[in-house]
Design goal:
Elements: E1 2-5, H1 7-20, E2 26-34, E3 37-46, H2 62-74, E4 78-87, H3 95-100, E5 106-113, E6 116-125, E7 132-135, E8 137-139
Parallel strand pairs: 1-3, 1-8, 4-5
Antiparallel strand pairs: 2-3, 2-4, 5-6, 6-7
Length: 147
């Protein structure tokens, strides 16, 4: 699969990472699945609920996750991914990320070095949970056709 983000989505994820620096920022990616592409339509910023280790861990409150999931469903979308930032670290999943991830979802990670967003990558957990595989990310402007 390929994850398709609009430029505004990538920018919003980067801005959220910068705003929450030096803590990790987190949120959901809502969208649709079109053949072999997960197409993002909306990003939903959420608060990192970690009271300890927020610099290198994030926690999405289950109630916040569910509220966002319900809102996305009302818009005809599903949760296709989770994003978070890595303050002063590369955009690669940690062992903690692997232990807490779900297969199939896209895990978008943006590196934030000294408060500035940089590289953005996406990862998918293998079905046997042994590790992540980097998922191709395409940044493209989506054309909406009104009928």
């Amino acid at each position: 699969m390929t994850l398709v983000l609009e430029p505004r989505h990538a920018a919003a994820i980067g801005r959220h990472g910068e705003a929450d620096y030096p803590a990790e920022a987190c949120g959901l990616v809502g969208g649709t699945v079109e053949r072999d592409r997960k197409v993002a339509v909306q990003v939903v910023p959420l608060a990192n609920q970690r009271s300890d280790s927020a610099r290198n861990r994030y926690l999405i409150d289950p109630q916040s996750f569910r509220r966002a999931e319900v809102q996305l469903a009302r818009d005809g979308l599903e949760v296709i991914g989770v994003y978070h930032s890595h303050p002063d670290h590369p955009p690669a999943p940690s062992a903690f990320d692997r232990e807490n991830a779900w297969p199939w979802l896209s895990y978008v990670i943006v590196a934030v070095a000294r408060g500035r967003a940089g590289d953005l990558k996406s990862w998918v957990l293998s079905d046997d949970r042994s590790g992540f595989v980097e998922e191709p990310v395409t940044i493209e402007e989506r054309k909406v056709v009104w009928q």
